[in-house]
Amino acid sequence: LLSHFSSVGFWGLVNNAGISTFGETGWLPMETYEKFADVNLLGSIRTTLEFLPLLRKYKGRIVFMSSIIAYFTLGNGIYSMTKAAIEKFCDALRLEMKKFGVQVCIIQPGNYARSTKIQPPVSAEEIWSELSEEEKAVYNKEYIQERANFFNSILSEGSTNGNEVVDAMVDALISPAPKARYMVAKLKEKVLVFVCALFPTVVMDSVLSYALSK
User: Fold this and answer.
1) 98: nearest Cα among 54, 56, 63
2) Total domains in the fold of the chain
3) Would you please indicate which residues are annotated as catalytic (active-site) residues?
4) Which domain of life is it from (predicted)?
């Protein structure tokens, strides 16, 4: 594969693979954490390392699919964890690649669940059936149903205009002066990111706790 591109040139790499799930920290087994780290984080790193020699040679572009959920979480902390990690990987890579003329861009979509189908509606019954006995002793079905309903309501509000994210990816690949980050999100989502980035953690915790309580 690399030898083929060596003869025709190699301009851009888009790391788009990702999986999502719902659940509080103790609800998910270690195997799930390992799977998410492998796909969402290490998968992008593996692909990047494989093509890095060609990207340096042809002064190409590397585009990573992150998410605004890298800044905060509302029930899918495992997904947030991997997106926050890939952001830091990109920050290091972007600085290191400048001397080679390689540009690194991050796409940060808001809620596009209805476009991508990355996260199907969650079932409280399925979550309960997969909980360990220790977790069942702490939580109850009513709480899990409330959280599932809350998360499903967020999914139902997702944008169907997935082309907005694709347009950002295309711009990152072909623009003469691409942005380091493309935040493609609704205004209220951008406000959450703004609060998370600029205000003390206690403020963001209060905002998210209020949202969860509703």
Assistant:
1) 56
2) 1
3) 79
4) Eukaryota
